[in-house]
């Protein structure tokens, strides 16, 4: 199997996604028991959940430049250390203030890993496998979310239940650190730092049959062109559209409501009629299984069907399921006990459509559309926007649900989905089968996004 080592590298690096998913999903079940411990109001619950996103914004904002200076590998290793320390801090938090601060610290690692791992994967991937390998990161996130749901279910009956739930992230973080010790940095970053021999060695391992000299020369030409324009690079007119695409797709990924589902699924299930913490957690675990399995499907289709067809399919399904979920609240009196099953069906449909489209495709696109010279900082900006959108959506959700009810809240997300379909049609390019260097040249030449 000629790409065996490439897949090994991708799997190890994607453990960063598993950690991000774990810390995203674990709070959904832990929150029920944290609330029993400290009796939090709506605003406090929102802050405990969204605290990790405050740290994520800071982490993403401050580490894009570091990824370009120190390399992708070292930054991934640093995040694993932060995950380990943050998980320990959360588990031993003596009060809610310390817990919030600890989750902000964990958020630093979440913010960093969400741009540096897709960046790493896109730069080690041959163009015909790039969609699949970057999708592997999203699959790892869903694996982490599913892992967190299983951990929640396992420790739900334990003494110090939520503390064990938050502590368990130490295990995958340790594995990531050890695994990355044996990996090399990306050929593109190595060439940018004049480490050409190391870049050739890395290419030989990940693409044994590639024309190594030609690959190196293509990277050097792209860097040379960027260096010539360096003083004015980010102010050129052609740079506007990659940022429109990158930030726009992050808006679509978050503001269609995904993390209200991931963070608050047990809360949603309880409000829809499930009568106990344990039942709600088990129902949420089913959502995690669907999310995990359907992201595997996305791994297969991203490089076969392309990015935009998956986005059209996913956004349409997300829109319809959100309207159905809202209707389950609006017609609760009519539906009676059936309401909770309509809610379950709507959430499962939502997760299927999101996992096959916006989840993986969003990160694929932001790893592809930016020029090499500033790819690290550009992905950092997109990741900051992702977590900023995420913070406002997640922090406000308990208040919106309480003040406006489930119907108006989820219908609002449905309207946003319609706007995102229009955005994809007019502004998002199809990048399937196009090299990163060719994508950059298309922007420079002024090629319309719909004509890529």
Task: Write the SSE topology.
Elements: H1 4-13, H2 15-38, H3 42-70, H4 72-91, H5 96-124, H6 130-155, H7 161-167, H8 170-180, H9 187-192, H10 196-206, H11 212-228, H12 240-255, H13 258-271, H14 277-301, H15 307-330, H16 332-335, H17 339-355, H18 358-368, H19 375-427, H20 436-444
Helix pairs in contact: 1-6, 2-3, 2-5, 2-6, 2-7, 2-8, 2-13, 3-4, 3-5, 3-19, 4-5, 4-7, 4-8, 5-6, 5-18, 5-19, 6-7, 6-14, 6-18, 12-18, 12-19, 13-14, 13-17, 14-17, 15-17, 15-18, 15-19
Q: Kindly, what is the distance between the CA atoms of the first and last residues, rounded to a whole number of angstroms?
A: 32 Å
Q: How would you sum up the global shape?
A: globular
Radius of gyration: 21 Å
Helical element count?
20
Instruction: State the helicity in percent bands.
Output: over 70%
Question: What is the count of distinct domains?
Answer: 1
CATH topology: Growth Hormone, Chain: A
Regions with pLDDT < 50 over 5+ consecutive residues?
A: none
How much β-strand is present in the residues?
A: under 5%
Q: Calculate the mean pLDDT score and round it.
A: 85
The CATH architecture can be named as Up-down Bundle
| CATH level 1 class label | Mainly Alpha
Note the main sheet: none
**CATH level 4 superfamily:** MFS general substrate transporter like domains
**Computed structural class:** mainly alpha
Order of helices and strands: HHHHHHHHHHHHHHHHHHHH
Number of strands: 0
């Amino acid at each position: 199997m000629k790409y065996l080592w490439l897949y090994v590298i991708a799997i190890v690096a994607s453990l960063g996604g598993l950690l991000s998913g774990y810390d995203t999903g674990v709070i959904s079940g832990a929150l029920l028991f944290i609330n029993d411990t400290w009796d939090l109001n709506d605003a406090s619950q929102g802050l405990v959940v969204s605290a990790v996103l405050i740290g994520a914004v800071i982490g993403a904002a401050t580490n894009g430049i570091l990824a370009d200076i120190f390399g992708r590998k070292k930054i991934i290793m640093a995040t694993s250390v932060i995950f380990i320390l943050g998980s320990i801090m959360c588990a031993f938090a003596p009060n809610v203030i310390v817990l919030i601060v600890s989750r902000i610290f964990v958020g630093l690692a979440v913010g960093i890993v969400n741009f540096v791992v897709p960046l790493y994967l896109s730069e080690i991937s041959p163009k015909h496998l790039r969609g699949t390998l970057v999708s592997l990161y999203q699959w790892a996130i869903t694996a982490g979310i599913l892992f967190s749901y299983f951990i929640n279910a396992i420790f739900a009956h334990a003494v110090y239940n939520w503390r064990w739930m938050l502590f368990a992230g130490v295990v995958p973080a340790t594995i990531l650190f050890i695994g990355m010790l044996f990996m090399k940095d990306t050929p593109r970053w190595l060439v940018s730092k004049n480490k050409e021999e190391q870049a050739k060695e890395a290419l030989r391992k990940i693409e044994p049959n590639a024309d190594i000299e030609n690959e190196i020369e293509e990277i050097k030409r792209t860097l040379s062109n960027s260096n010539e324009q360096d003083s004015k690079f980010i102010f050129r007119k052609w740079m506007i559209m990659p940022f429109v695409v990158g930030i726009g797709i992050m808006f679509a990924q978050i503001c269609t409501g995904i993390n209200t589902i991931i963070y608050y699924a047990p809360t949603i299930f309880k409000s829809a009629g499930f009568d106990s913490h344990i039942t709600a957690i088990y129902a949420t675990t089913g959502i995690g299984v669907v999310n995990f399995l359907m992201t595997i499907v996305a791994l297969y289709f991203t490089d076969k069907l392309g990015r935009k067809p998956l986005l059209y399919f996913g956004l349409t399904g997300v829109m319809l399921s959100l309207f159905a979920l809202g209707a389950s609240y609006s017609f609760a009196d009519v539906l009676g006990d059936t309401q909770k099953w309509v809610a379950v069906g709507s959430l499962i449909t939502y997760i299927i459509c999101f996992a096959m489209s916006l989840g993986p495709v969003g990160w694929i696109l932001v790893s592809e559309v930016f020029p090499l010279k500033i790819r690290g900082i550009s992905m950092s900006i997109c990741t900051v926007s992702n977590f900023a959108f995420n913070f406002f959506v997640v922090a406000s959700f308990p208040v919106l649900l309480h003040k406006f009810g489930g119907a108006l809240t989820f219908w609002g997300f449905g309207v946003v989905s319609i706007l995102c379909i229009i955005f994809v049609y007019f502004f998002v390019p199809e990048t399937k089968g196009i090299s990163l260097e060719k994508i950059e040249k298309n922007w420079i030449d002024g090629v319309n996004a719909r004509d890529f």
